[in-house]
Amino acid sequence: MLDIIFQDADLLILNKPAGLVCHPTKDGALSILISRVRLYLGAPGHLVNRLDRETSGVTVVAKTPAAAGELGKLWESRSVRKEYLAIVHGAVRDDSGIIELALGKDEKSRIAIKDCARPDGAPARTEFFVERRFRRGERDFSLLRVLPQTGRKHQIRIHLAAVGHPIVGDKLYGGNEDLYLALVRGQLTAGQRRELILPNHALHAHSISLLWRGEEKTFRAPPNADFTTFAAI
Hints:
Blueprint: E1 4-7, E2 11-16, H1 33-41, E3 46-47, E4 56-62, H2 65-76, E5 81-89, E6 96-100, E7 103-105, E8 115-117, E9 125-136, E10 139-148, H3 155-162, H4 177-184, H5 190-196, E11 203-212, E12 215-220, H6 225-231
Parallel strand pairs: 4-11
Antiparallel strand pairs: 1-2, 2-4, 3-4, 5-10, 5-11, 6-9, 7-8, 9-10, 11-12
């Protein structure tokens, strides 16, 4: 039920699968990560970081209110190092770079949750490194290691799309909003699925590093099979 990376009296570190929401939905307890956590613990748990439904990877759960408070302060202080892996469309030219684009609500979109890069938005900064460039068929792709230095909603997805390299499988920021609308209606066609290439967007929270009670801790999670097979890693 849970892919556990590490646990002790205070922490439960998980590798969240793609397609599982962190927040409550109408689909039942086992469709929600926090509900699975509480069933496993037999007690309340506190999600410290929350990933989008289709983003997989390292998720930190505090087992106690005291641990949740300590971890919350670490996140607020921006002293937690988060590293993601992303497969994007196109051959990214530079081996590394920093994207600094302010983010805010996309008022032109039909989709209420969608944000965009806009000058009057909240400051956001994302660093990236190219791990490898590769081809599939006649198309170019790049595998990136991504280090968000701020924590805005959908930050990595928006930033990469804004510089011309949207994440493979991203239904919201990939350039065709109809894909997202079809998803939420349960109406994705076979042709649309082929357009997306992968069933979930190719963004994975690969590691989290933090100073926890005087000790440096790093928790890592491998990407899922769809991700690793496509990127040949």
